[in-house]
Amino acid sequence: MYHYIRDADDSPFRGIYALSTMDFQRQLDWFTERYRIIHYDEFVAAVQGKHSFNEPAALLTFDDGLLDHYRTVFPILRDRGLSGVFFACDGVFTGKAVLLNVHKIHLILSAIGDAAFMASVQRGLQRITKRYVLDTKKREGLYPKDLDSIAAVKTFLNYQLPYDICDELLDALFREHVGDPAVIARTFYVSPQQAKEMALAGMTWGTHTLTHRVLSRLDAAEQRGEVEGGIAAARDLTGQIDVPFCYPYGGVHTFNDITKDILRSCGYSMAFAVRRFLTHANTCDALDIPRHDAIAFPPVASHAPNS
Q1: d(CA 6, CA 64)
Q2: Which end of the chain offers a freer environment for a tag, N or C, measured as fewer CB atoms within 10 Å?
């Protein structure tokens, strides 16, 4: 599973944690020496029991529909004869992309740094409401790459603060410290034309909800509103029949049985999570497919995970 793949020094947001182009190339070298990189269709056939692998195989996935995936990843995969699965929120397919809260957090952090971000969140929250207090010592095991205090802020914003308040808070902070989110969004995500070009070249597209909410925080009607529109939008743009799904944030606590029932009713046959272990395609739960974060493998990590 990949997110940002860019050379940070060439980006206006140098503080974003990204895999460099060179390290991505080196990691692909490492994977192709040890695994056969498969197309999504092969993986589907294996999950359905119609195909099996006689050697270790890997499926490359990329989340959030970032412009990095068109500018950096797509040419590299195409030149190597490889493919990947790219998950994006609905706006990428409809041409109505808005800057997601998860990315507002990343860009504000990049612009002002950890300490100023925490202070801005606390001040902004007090302006909006006195009902919620940020505890910067609480992290609940999430965001292991971050300092405890930043992990606590991200946990508070993404998992605890009511979404209407969070939306208002992050919009205000983003405008104060970065700029107009609508302007940034136009150059932050893949466009429909770029997504279609990638699909025609053999890349697979999947959906990632409407607004990147933690689905388990929502009731059934709200969850359906997040997931039901994406499959038709992706099909219309790419011509795909099978459109996979990817849970935002992806941990086991971020979705539930209601989510899976809704996905089935909407026509999704595959859904990807973030469960850090290897899997046998023909025995895994098709609506809870585990994935490793790419940072767990060389050259980012010193050695590959054991499971």
Answers
A1: 14
A2: C
CB 216 within 8 A of CB 159: no
| CATH top class, domain 8-97+189-296 | alpha beta
Residues paired with residue 61 on neighbouring β-strands, in sequence order: 85
Strand order in the sheet with 85-88: 61-63, 85-88, 204-207, 245-246, 271-272
Summarize pLDDT for 113-144 with one digit per residue, the tens.
999 999 999 999 999 999 998 877 766 667 87
Beta-bridge partners for 205: 86
Neighbours of 9 (CB within 10 A): 7
Domain chopping of the chain, boundaries: 8-97+189-296, 101-185
Q: What CA–CA distances, in Å, run from 125 to 120, 162, 165, 200?
A: 8, 12, 8, 45
**138-161 tens-digit pLDDT:** 666 678 777 788 899 999 999 999
The region, left, alpha or beta by phi > 0 then psi within -120 to 50, assigned to residue 235 is: alpha
For residues 61 and 1, what is the distance between their CA atoms, to the nearest angstrom? 5
Cβ atoms of 100 and 77 closer than 8 Å:
no
| Of 81, 76, 85, the residue nearest 27 (C-alpha) | 76
**Secondary structure tally for the chain: helices H, strands E:** 13, 7
Total-model pTM: 0.95
